[in-house]
Amino acid sequence: MANSIVVNNLCVKRDGNPIILDLSFEIRKGSIAGILGPSGSGKTTIFRAIVGVQEITSGKITVLGKPAGSKDLRNRIGYLTQSASIYADLTVSENLRYFSKILGTSEISVDEIIDLVDLGKNIKQLASTLSGGERARLALATALLGKPDVIILDEPTVGLDPLLRIELWKVFRLLGEQGKTLLLSSHSMDEADLCDSLVLLREGKILAQGSPAQLKSETGETQMESVFISLVKKP
Ligand SMILES: Nc1ncnc2c1ncn2[C@@H]1O[C@H](COP(=O)(O)OP(=O)(O)O)[C@@H](O)[C@H]1O
Ligand SMILES: [Mg+2]
What we know:
Blueprint: E1 3-14, E2 17-28, E3 32-36, H1 43-51, E4 58-63, E5 66-67, E6 77-80, H2 92-103, H3 107-116, H4 132-144, E7 150-153, H5 162-177, E8 181-186, E9 197-202, E10 205-210, H6 212-219, H7 224-233
Parallel strand pairs: 3-8, 3-9, 6-7, 7-8
Antiparallel strand pairs: 1-2, 1-4, 4-5, 9-10
Helix pairs in contact: 4-5, 6-7
The protein binds adenosine-5'-diphosphate (ADP) and magnesium ion.
The site of adenosine-5'-diphosphate has 11 residues, from α1.
């Protein structure tokens, strides 16, 4: 199976309003894919549909060969929601053990994940005392419990300065090297270049998809920001 996520002709209405309009894309296994689009374009709605918590109007979503929302997928997909919650009054280690209990994942994986996100020095520190970058890595760690094969990250780097973004991207790369499939969203085009493949979204529709290099060559632009603008202006 070459693709971890396959979305076919997805349509979603929320409160009766069409939000996602006939969307189709595939995410290759072991790749880092990005859904990029302005705020309100439907990124979170797509993620909710992929993890199986969003009712869809029509279309089909397959994750690891199974229909989205299947029981078997529960521990195989990690989901970091847009406003990820960690408990300020628990330590790093307590946060992860707490989430691990809720998810029913093994305690051994907690130690492994602490290493992976490089919070070994901070395990006894209260989450409220962590720096922005450490907090972001702790939030990411909660999505990695249970060692999911597919990791969905909704705007994981929002609000982080460029250096902290780089820190977080190092972890994404490590996960990619382990054969995990990452699908993340961002409303800022400067992260696009770091992804293997992109879906550019606007008002619930796909503007374009492909690798950053493909999209640049198709539009004749050199910067992703200009690629997006050029696609929006295209008649
Ligand atoms: N609970 C909801 N009920 C109705 N409409 C919603 C709800 N949540 C989001 N929307 C609408 O769906 C559209 C897409 O939202 P969202 O998927 O959150 O976009 P993004 O994540 O790209 O910012 C927006 O127009 C938003 O107003
Ligand atoms: Mg969102």
